[in-house]
C-alpha cells in the first residue's frame, strides 16, 4: 500500500469575518483519512504561520494548507518556496486575491474538496527587496489601494473602488526612474504595481493579463488622473480592461529596478513596509508548488459585456470632455490674442 501523504492545515483564527470553529470538523469530513495524515495547527500571532510552515517543509510534509486570507497565504507560501512541499489554500480572508486568480473555490468545503484531489502544479512568485510576494507588490498609492480593495467585498465593489480612487487624488504623484532590460525611463505616476497574479483581491484586476506561468511580472504604471476619470478606472479594474485605459502604462519583464527621490512605503501582497529609495523586483519562475483546481488552473481574461459598455461610455465621456477642454483652451487663447491686438489699436 502507498504511504499516506502528510498534510498540515494552518488556521489563522482572526482572518476574514467568519469564525473558524467549524473548520476542524469540515477537514475531518472532506479529507480522505485513507490517503492523508492530517495535522491542524492554529496561529497564535503574526509570523507564526511562516514558522509552522518552515518546520513542516523541513520535516518533508507533502502539503501545507493556509486557512486564512492573503496575509496567511503569503506567510505559509514564503516558507515553501523552492521546496517539494506544496501550498494548499482554503480562502477565509476578505480579499482572497491568490485563490481567486487560481480559480479555487471560495467556499471552504469545496476548497477542501480540491485539496483532497491533490493535483499540484508549479507557479512563479515574485520578490521585492528580498520579500516574497505571490499576488502583487507595489509602491506609491498602490500600498493604500491594495489594502482598501481587500476590504471592498464588504461594501459593494464599484462605488467603493471609485471612492477609494477619489480619496487617492490627495496623494501627490511621484517621479520614478524605472530600469528594465530594455533601458531606463522616467515616469510621473500615482502608483507602480508589479503583478505576478492578476488581481488585488475581490476581483479588482490591476493586471488582467498576468499569468503565474510565464516567468514574467506585469508592471502597471498609473499616471495622475482627475476625479472625473475615477469612475472609468474603477470600471476598468473590475472589468479586466485596465490595460485599455489611457492613464495606464503596462509592460512585462523578468526584473526591474525602480528609483524614487526618497525612501517610502512599499507593499507585498497588501502588507505595507518602509524601504529605501531603491527598489528591486524580480520573478522566480516556477518557484512554488501549489495545489490547483483541476477544472480551472488560472482565471481566464474575459471582460463582462455589461461593464464593457460602461467602460466605453466613460471613455467617450472623457474624450468629449477633453475635446471641450481643448476647444475651451483654444477659444481662450484666441480671446487673449484678440485682446492683445485690440489693445495695440
Ligand atoms: N493569532 C493571530 N493573532 C493576530 N494576528 C494574526 C494571528 N495569526 C495570524 N495573524 C496575522 O493576521 C494577519 C491578517 O490575516 P489574513 O491576511 O490572513 O486575513 P485578512 O486580512 O482577513 O484577509 P485578506 O488579506 O485576504 O484581506 C496576517 O498578516 C497574519 O500575520
UniProtKB/TrEMBL annotation:
Domain of life: Bacteria
Pfam family, one: DAGK_cat
Domain DAGKc: 2-132
Entry keyword set: ATP-binding, Kinase, Lipid biosynthesis, Lipid metabolism, Magnesium, Metal-binding, Nucleotide-binding, Phospholipid biosynthesis, Phospholipid metabolism, Transferase
UniProt cross-references to SMART domains, sorted A to Z: DAGKc
Signal peptide: none
Record GO terms (molecular function): kinase activity
Cofactors: Mg(2+)
Protein name: YegS/Rv2252/BmrU family lipid kinase
Record organism: Xylanibacter brevis
Amino acid at each position: 500500500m502507498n504511504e499516506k501523504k502528510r498534510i498540515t492545515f494552518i488556521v489563522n483564527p482572526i482572518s476574514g469575518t467568519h469564525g473558524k470553529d467549524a473548520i476542524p470538523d469540515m477537514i475531518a469530513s472532506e479529507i480522505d483519512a485513507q490517503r492523508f495524515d492530517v495535522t491542524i495547527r492554529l496561529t497564535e500571532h503574526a509570523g507564526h504561520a511562516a514558522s509552522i510552515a518552515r518546520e513542516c517543509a523541513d520535516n518533508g510534509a507533502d502539503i501545507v494548507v493556509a486557512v486564512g486570507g492573503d496575509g496567511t497565504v503569503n506567510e505559509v507560501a514564503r516558507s515553501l518556496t523552492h521546496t517539494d512541499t506544496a501550498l494548499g489554500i482554503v480562502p477565509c480572508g476578505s480579499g482572497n486575491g491568490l485563490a481567486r486568480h487560481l480559480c479555487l473555490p471560495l467556499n471552504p468545503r469545496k476548497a477542501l474538496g480540491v485539496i483532497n484531489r491533490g493535483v499540484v502544479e508549479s507557479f512563479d512568485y515574485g520578490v521585492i527587496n528580498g520579500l516574497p510576494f505571490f499576488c502583487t507588490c507595489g509602491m506609491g498609492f498602490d500600498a493604500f489601494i491594495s489594502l482598501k480593495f481587500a476590504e471592498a467585498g464588504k461594501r459593494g465593489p464599484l462605488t467603493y473602488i471609485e471612492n477609494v480612487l477619489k480619496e487617492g487624488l490627495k496623494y501627490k504623484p511621484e517621479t520614478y526612474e524605472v530600469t528594465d532590460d530594455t533601458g531606463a525611463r522616467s515616469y510621473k505616476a500615482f502608483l507602480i504595481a508589479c503583478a505576478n497574479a492578476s488581481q488585488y483581491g475581490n476581483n479588482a484586476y490591476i493586471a488582467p493579463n498576468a499569468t503565474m506561468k510565464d516567468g514574467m511580472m506585469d508592471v502597471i504604471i498609473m499616471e495622475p488622473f482627475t476625479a472625473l476619470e475615477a469612475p472609468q478606472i474603477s470600471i476598468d479594474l473590475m472589468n479586466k480592461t485596465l490595460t485599455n485605459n489611457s492613464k495606464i502604462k503596462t509592460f512585462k519583464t523578468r526584473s526591474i529596478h525602480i528609483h524614487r527621490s526618497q525612501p517610502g512605503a512599499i507593499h507585498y501582497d497588501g502588507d505595507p513596509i518602509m524601504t529605501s529609495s531603491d527598489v528591486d523586483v524580480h520573478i522566480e519562475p516556477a518557484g512554488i508548488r501549489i495545489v490547483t483546481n483541476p477544472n480551472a488552473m488560472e482565471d481566464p481574461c474575459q471582460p463582462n459585456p455589461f461593464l464593457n459598455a460602461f467602460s466605453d461610455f466613460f471613455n467617450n465621456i472623457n474624450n468629449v470632455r477633453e475635446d471641450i477642454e481643448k476647444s475651451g483652451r483654444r477659444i481662450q487663447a484666441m480671446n487673449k490674442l484678440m485682446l492683445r491686438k485690440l489693445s495695440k489699436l
